[in-house]
Amino acid sequence: xxxxxxxxxxxxxxxxxxxxxxxxxxxxxxxxxxxxxxxxxxxxxxxxxxxxxxxxxxxxxxxxxx
Length: 66
Hints:
This protein is flat. Strands 1-3-2 form a three-stranded parallel beta sheet, with helices on both faces. The protein is of the alpha/beta class. The longest helix has 13 residues, at about 45-55. The chain has helices at about 20-30, 40, 45-55, and strands at about 10-15, 35, 60-65.
C-alpha cells in the first residue's frame, strides 16, 4: 500500500494449519499489510475491533479467521 492508495482489507477464512499465515508472510507482509489473526486475539469481536482501528488509521490489513 502506497501513500496514494486507500486502505485494503483481505480476509482469509479457513481451518487452523491451512496456510493463512504463511500466505500473509509471503505475499502481504512485504507490502506493509498488518496481520490480524483470530488465533492470537482469541475472538472474532476482537478481530473486528482491530480491523476497524487499522482501517481508520489508514492501514491495509490481512485478517485470518476460523
